[in-house]
Design brief:
Keywords: Coiled coil. This protein has about 150 residues and is mostly helical. About 85% of the residues lie in helices and about 0% in strands.
């Protein structure tokens, strides 16, 4: 059983290697064809007058720059789309934070005893106390109990 498993793995690796080699051969063939085309174009430009060679070179450079600009424009559009998406997410999260903070100040302390410490910390961040404490009348027994403990 182990020998069969190893043989199967070896055959799989051999098949993958052959497929990879075939793909690389195809890639080399395409590159050779492209190189031959470029060589023919180069030989043709050498036969042209110097003025036409310069014009041809400029045309090639314009084409290259145009393609580069299109690629950059596509990248810019992609980045702008991502920026808009992130801004929308930020607005959603800011709204959730505001809703959460609003719910923390409107829910009576008795309903959320496990969040008392957090509420105090939030209040200290939001307000500058100067000896006065604002509280609801129904929270008075809980406030006194918390002050004692």
């Amino acid at each position: 059983p182990v020998l069969r498993l190893l043989e199967a793995q070896l055959q799989d690796q051999r098949r993958e290697h052959e497929e990879e080699m075939e793909a690389l051969k195809n890639q080399v063939d395409l590159m050779q064809e492209e190189l031959e085309k470029q060589q023919q174009a180069f030989l043709q430009t050498l036969q042209l007058s110097p003025e036409v060679q310069v014009e041809f070179g400029l045309q090639q450079e314009i084409t290259r720059l145009t393609n580069e600009n299109l690629d950059l424009k596509e990248l810019l559009e992609k980045l702008e789309k991502n920026e808009r998406k992130l801004k929308k997410q930020l607005k959603i999260y800011m709204k959730k934070v505001q809703d959460f903070e609003a719910s923390q100040t409107t829910v009576p302390v008795e309903r959320r005893p496990h969040e008392q410490n957090m509420q105090v910390a939030v209040q200290r961040k939001e307000k500058d106390f100067q000896g006065m404490l604002e509280y609801y009348k129904e929270d008075e027994p809980l406030l006194i109990r918390n002050l004692i403990t």
